[in-house]
Design brief:
The structure holds 2 protein chains of 2 kinds. In chain A, α1 links the parallel β1 and β2. Helices cover 13% and strands 25% of the residues of chain A. Chain A has an 11-stranded mixed beta sheet, with helices on one face. Chain B has a domain of 249 residues: Aminohydrolase, N-terminal nucleophile (Ntn) domain (Glutamine Phosphoribosylpyrophosphate, subunit 1, domain 1, 4-Layer Sandwich), CATH 3.60.20. Chain B contains 10 helices and 18 strands. In chain B, the strands form 4 sheets. A 7-stranded antiparallel beta sheet of chain B has the order 8-3-10-1-16-15-17. In chain B, a hairpin with a 2-residue loop joins β13 and β14. The longest helix of chain B is centred in the middle third of the chain and has 15 residues. The C terminus of chain B is likely disordered. Classes of the chains: A alpha/beta, B alpha+beta. Chains A and B meet through loops of A and α10 of B.
């Protein structure tokens, strides 16, 4: 394992050194004393681990392409921006626009997520992005979502309050969102259907939750998957007639 | 395009308030804002500091930026009409590696001679008269026992230029600028100040024209070429003149949507309907996160749909607001509490409210 102290170093310098080492096959790197360094793990292809101590800066794991990035605390805005493949594991919270335009890979968050989680995430052929959040999320969850899957586990339950905010799935036209806990039609955007997961989807969720527990090294309480609410687009073009008089 | 590299943008804001009134130098706030260097582009940086002039605490401290030092005589003539200049001096600046040129900054400590019940109004009138009437002179702050230090450069360089490590304040607010829709010039840097208010802002106010016209009805003239100016004057109008309590500013500046108000129950519904109806001209549209400093406190607020980031944190008796968590962790690695502001939410703290620290959240809404 290689340990790089990041304090006092510019993010370009740190990321450049990580890329050089990654190319040489040094695929187990611990970034110590990180504080606000942007784009950690940027575009790294192939398997390997970047272990982060401290608070990483915005756009963590941007364009990630196979790397596993493990954060021991909170991450900032734009986690996994346009990532292709790999896994981002966050033991704390993520802030706004996590999973922005994500095209593949997984973001596993133990804590809460901010606003616009999974905005415009999409899937194509074998690429299927998945985001799992242990706590709750802000407004605009899955805004303009075009593919992939988001699971919100609401583990703290917060006295029965809804774990998601207003304008959930606004403009969503592909993919699926599964929410444990209260969510009403009023919280969802136009053209969004609410139902419960079917047999096949339950199996799919179970397998992702298995991976979630293993990667975060936690044990989830028994969860009744049939009590989850599934949000899905009723049409692939919810605003297709917006400008057609 | 000469430069093929993308410049990551977004202004940076940060604030520190010691709830027990302890005074600290500007060194911490400079370190905090410097961590978010990437959010600025060198076209503006600035600080507001509270509690820095205890020897003149009861006097108005005017910080004046002179693009044209020959206008000083005209400015002083206006000040002397209703005030006595008890003391004045050039604000000390020290050349730094990155800032070799700067305009003249002077500070005046003024004793108002007129009736005490209208002195704040008279100060506002003087600021408007100078800023709109004298070309080349701008009053950048006009409060008591506080001051604004700002200019063109990265905030950490501006902090060094003004030698902020030499000042002791209980509250510090900082801004790193990335100008998008308006020019980067010394008077256009943040914070914006009027009386003892100071405002730093990340975002852009697309309702600027409406807000500016609304403010004209009350004698405020916007002439600093930047949207943030309207926020400063609106805060003064609403809080000082109209006695709206700070937690409710969220219901005016970042009001809920009509469809959300429609679903509220009485009397909340009537309250929000009234505020939106009366203060339609004060609604701030567009993305923003702001920190506002005032005597004894500071508050943070985010726009209606949270298009800009802001976090609040508490550690022992210190309250922090910032665009990014890293800027808080830089000066307080472990925290008692950390929350991300929600859309339209106001989080406010004041010196002396010890019982509240880390627990009480002042949230807009009833």
């Amino acid at each position: 394992m290689i340990i790089l102290k990041c304090r006092g170093r510019h993010y370009k310098d740190v990321n450049h050194e990580v890329e050089m080492r990654w190319e040489r096959g040094e695929r187990d790197i611990l970034l110590d004393e990180v504080n606000g360094h942007r784009y950690i793990g940027r575009a790294l292809s192939g398997e390997g681990l970047i272990d982060v101590r401290g608070v990483p800066g915005d756009d963590l794991g941007m364009f990630a392409d196979g790397v596993t990035v493990h954060i021991r605390g909170n991450a900032q805005d734009g986690v996994g921006n346009t990532m292709n493949a790999g896994t981002i594991i966050v033991e704390g919270d993520v802030r706004d626009i996590a999973g922005h335009s994500m095209r593949g890979g997984k973001i596993l968050v133990q804590g809460n997520a901010g606003y616009r989680l999974g905005i415009h995430m999409k899937s194509f052929q074998d690429d299927y992005p998945v985001i799992i959040v242990g706590g709750n999320t802000g407004d605009f969850l899955g805004e303009y979502m075009a593919g992939g899957m988001i699971i919100v586990l609401n583990l703290q339950e917060n006295g029965g309050a809804s774990p998601v905010g207003n304008f959930t799935a606004s403009g969503m036209h592909g993919g699926k969102i599964f929410i444990r806990g209260k969510v009403s039609q009023e919280q969802a955007g136009r053209g969004i259907g609410l139902s419960e997961p079917n047999e096949e989807e339950s199996l799919e969720i179970s397998s992702y939750l298995e991976e979630y527990q293993q990667k975060l090294d936690i044990h989830l309480p028994p969860l009744d998957l049939r009590s989850f609410t599934k949000l899905f687009p009723l049409t692939t073009r919810p605003y297709g007639c917006l400008y057609a008089y | 395009m000469r430069d093929p590299f993308r410049i990551p943008s977004g202004c940076a804001v940060s604030g520190i308030l010691n709830l027990d009134g302890t005074h600290v130098s500007g060194e911490k706030i400079i370190r905090s804002i410097e961590v978010m260097h990437e959010r600025s582009n060198g076209l503006g940086g600035g600080f507001a500091a509270y509690g820095i002039y205890p020897e003149y605490a009861e006097l108005y401290a005017f910080h004046v930026l002179y693009d044209d030092p020959l206008t000083a005589k005209d400015v002083e003539a206006i000040l002397k009409r209703s005030c006595t200049i008890e003391h004045s001096e050039e604000i000390p600046c020290k050349e730094t590696e990155n800032i070799q040129n700067w305009p003249v900054f002077k500070r005046y400590f003024l004793r108002y001679r007129g009736r005490s019940d209208c002195e704040d109004d008279e100060v506002v009138r003087m600021v408007m008269e100078v800023n709109s009437g004298i070309h080349g002179a701008y009053i950048v702050s006009s409060g008591k026992n506080m001051g604004v230090f700002k200019g063109v450069g990265y905030p950490e360089d501006i902090g060094k230029l003004f030698q902020l490590e030499e000042y002791q304040g209980y509250c510090w607010i900082a801004h790193g600028r990335f100008p998008t829709n308006s020019a980067g010039w010394w008077g256009g840097a943040h914070p914006f100040g009027l009386l003892s208010w100071s405002v730093v802002h990340n975002g852009e106010i697309s309702s600027y024209g409406i807000n500016r016209r609304y403010l004209q009805n009350f004698g405020y003239v916007c002439n600093l070429q930047t949207d943030t100016e309207v926020i400063t004057y609106l805060v003064d109008l609403l809080v000082r003149k109209h006695n709206i309590r700070i937690p409710y500013l969220g219901a005016v500046f970042a009001s809920p949507f009509w469809e959300q108000i429609e679903k509220m129950e009485e009397p909340k519904k009537e309250f929000f309907t009234s505020l939106r109806t009366i203060y339609g001209g004060a609604l701030l549209n567009g993305p923003f996160s702001i920190i506002v400093g005032f005597p004894g406190g500071m508050f943070g607020m985010v726009d209606r749909i949270k298009l800009r980031p802001m976090l609040a944190a508490w550690k022992d008796s210190t309250f922090f607001l910032s665009s990014e968590e890293c800027a808080i962790r830089e000066i307080a690695p472990s925290l008692d509490r950390l929350v991300a502001l929600r859309a339209g939410e106001v989080i406010s703290e004041r010196v002396g409210e010890r019982n509240s620290h880390g627990q009480k959240l002042t949230v807009s809404g009833v």
